[in-house]
């Protein structure tokens, strides 16, 4: 994890994997290690659930400024980020799929907006599934998946690509 967090301290980092694999937890841990004022845009989880996630992974919840945007309001998210990003040192978007419902819009948002922001600060984008349209512009890729072991415990895996 320490090598991955060093990589995530610059540019656009994409954390991807199947639903329930632990992408949000990984993004929280990475962001916590990278900087102190983090704008967290959520399209999936309400702030109280995220605070529990932050505590579970040992992240300092005081660093995170969480804004919950239900997918119905996705059109306002990019404007909100543009208007407020100067107040923060890093940005996490969980999930980028919640902002752009179609692949072509996802690529446009990632390349035209998030990638440009990543030149000034670390950006962590959580992606549900696999999105080759986003992967090609990412500076860093972190794959997350899980398997159940012989004892019935879930084991989570990370791979920096």
Automatic annotation (TrEMBL):
Residues 14-45 form the ATPase AAA-type core domain. InterPro entries: ATPase_AAA_core (IPR003959), P-loop_NTPase (IPR027417). This is Family 417, putative ATP binding protein.
């Amino acid at each position: 994890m320490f090598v991955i967090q060093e990589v995530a301290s610059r540019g656009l980092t994409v954390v991807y994997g199947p639903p329930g694999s632990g992408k949000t937890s990984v993004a929280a841990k990475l962001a916590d290690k990278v900087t102190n004022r983090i704008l967290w845009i959520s399209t999936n989880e309400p702030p109280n659930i995220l605070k529990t996630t932050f505590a579970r992974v040992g992240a300092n919840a005081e660093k995170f400024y969480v804004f919950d945007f239900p997918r119905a309001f996705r059109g306002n998210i990019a404007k909100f980020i543009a208007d407020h990003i100067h107040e923060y040192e890093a940005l996490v978007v969980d999930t980028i799929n919640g902002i752009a419902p179609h692949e072509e819009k996802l690529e446009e948002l990632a390349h035209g907006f998030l990638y440009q922001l990543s030149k000034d600060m670390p950006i962590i984008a959580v992606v549900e599934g696999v999105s080759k349209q986003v992967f090609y512009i990412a500076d860093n890729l972190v794959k997350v998946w899980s398997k159940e072991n012989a004892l019935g415990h879930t084991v989570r895996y990370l791979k920096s690509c």
